[in-house]
Amino acid sequence: MKRNSNIELLRIVSIVFILLSHFSLWSEWDTSHHGLFSYALTMIYQPLGKFGAYAFVLITSYFSVKKNIDPIEHEKKQLKHSFVTMQEVWFYSILIFVVTWALNIMQPSFENVIKALFPFISQEYWFVTAYIMLVLLIPFLNIVSVQLDFRGHLALLFTLLLFDTLSLFRNGTMSDL
């Protein structure tokens, strides 16, 4: 499939949204003495990260849906790609840990060492883990997608939306507003 500039723009906007969200969530941006407008601005940034993550999943799904796909061949290719991605994340996780420790930004603790060594099971980089799982499930999701009619797709969409909305309450995101 050839490149589409609109989709590339969506990727860039998604990255900016994710960065704004992370900045508002994890930086030491003190808005308490800047008034209600500044606080409201940071609260607007936070959900943008979720939108950006959704956009990345949708872009992956858009380019992955194929009617005639051999699940075994696709899975072999995706396993190799996923392994390379995991190696890259592991490398940068260790590198960031060592650099922040060397610069005395973070003190090493048992918890921090475990997070750096096992970023996939410690939920340190939850999106990479979820993305790899999605990529590995694509051949099977393709089979389901081909079998569903329009109403089936709508039912699946609303079910997933319901689960996601419920996760907002479970994870405390809605209670923080």
Automatic annotation (TrEMBL):
Print the keywords alphabetically. Answer: Membrane, Transmembrane, Transmembrane helix
Keyword Transmembrane helix assigned: yes
TM ranges are 9-27, 47-65, 86-105, 125-145, 152-169
InterPro entries from the UniProt entry: Acyl_transf_3_dom (IPR002656)
Query: What's the superkingdom here?
Result: Bacteria
- Domain Acyltransferase positions: 5-170
Record flagged with keyword Manganese: no
GO molecular-function terms, A-Z = acyltransferase activity, transferring groups other than amino-acyl groups
Q: Pfam families, alphabetically?
A: Acyl_transf_3
- Its name, as the record gives it, is Eps10O
Q: Which organism is it from?
A: Pediococcus damnosus
The opening ranks of the lineage are: Bacteria, Bacillati, Bacillota, Bacilli, Lactobacillales
